């Protein structure tokens, strides 16, 4: 059996399958900071406010002086932000705030509506400030699209990471953000609980979000989806985005790609190159409902989209409690979260 059902090339936006809506890979080689959290470099030639140019291997995105995404609304889905390098400053209409760093994950349920900002402060003024971020949009089923918004931080100190060695001692590391890793030692790779209204919180949804690292020459067996036999429609996508060559069963892949895999069977992965292979795995049982999307709003019908636009114009989804549309949380590389209604910050464990 061929383990690969379909292959698609990777670009800035990666192809997804239901229940996932969107996957973006931001990989920016930002220069030293200018002391005001922006780049110590000219912004000439960029379309400030909408800069996706990759000029000099970085973009300002919608930021004007600090790169990132100033205040913008969402309704009807969730964002899962996996930070691999750099810092992200979060602020939202619930009053929540956070600065998170490499290895941390933010999971935000937009539900009936939230406004948030995601800024990329360049804290180091004497050295480059690389940033690498994977952002995933996970759909919500119709019954949960108008759930209360929910802000969650998964600190890297608490996210399960399972390091396994093959017969030759070569390591494979699996980071388990959602969905327990089948056949792992008991308790070794049990994920943190997803937000309560998430599709990932439903056992039958079979959602998994893992990142994989395979050392050169390493072998690792990707287990079958936990409920694939019961839910034959469970689907999984493996994004091969770093390294030279990856074998999946008998099939060798030599270009970075999104690979939809057979989910109901184990497959042996092998790194046949000389550099570390890195992958993201997204898996889930499809929600299987109509998707109506208009920018940051994802509902089931066009009339619900019109209602979302009207609600946002009328209520601003609770308003924006911050003095600027692009808050940055100071010069110190201090990771923290301030949850809605809290007066003090919580720090990583």
Could you explain the architecture of this structure?
The protein has one helix and 24 strands. With 349 residues, the chain is mainly β. Among the domains are: 31-43 and 60-157 and 317-323, Sandwich (Jelly Rolls), CATH 2.60.120; 161-192 and 199-284, Sandwich (Jelly Rolls), CATH 2.60.120. The strands form five sheets. A seven-stranded antiparallel beta sheet has the order 1-19-16-21-14-13-12, with no helix packed on it. A hairpin with a 5-residue loop joins β2 (13-14) and β3 (20-30). It is globular and about 55 Å long. One of its GO terms (molecular function) is metal ion binding.
- Calculate the terminal CA-CA distance, rounded to whole Å: 45 Å
Major beta sheet, strand line-up: 1-19-16-21-14-13-12
CATH superfamily of one domain: Jelly Rolls
Largest sheet: 7 strands, antiparallel
Multimeric organization: single chain
CATH architecture group name of one domain = Sandwich
CATH topology of one domain: Jelly Rolls
Secondary-structure-based class equals mainly beta
Report mean pLDDT, rounded to a whole number.
Answer: 95
Anisotropy-based shape: globular
What is the CATH C level class of one domain, in words? Mainly Beta
Q: Unreliable runs, pLDDT <50, ≥5 residues?
A: none
- SSE string, helices as H and strands as E: EEEEEEEEEEEEEEEEEEEEEEEHE
Q: What is the total tally of β strands? A: 24
User: How many whole angstroms does the radius of gyration measure?
Assistant: 20 Å
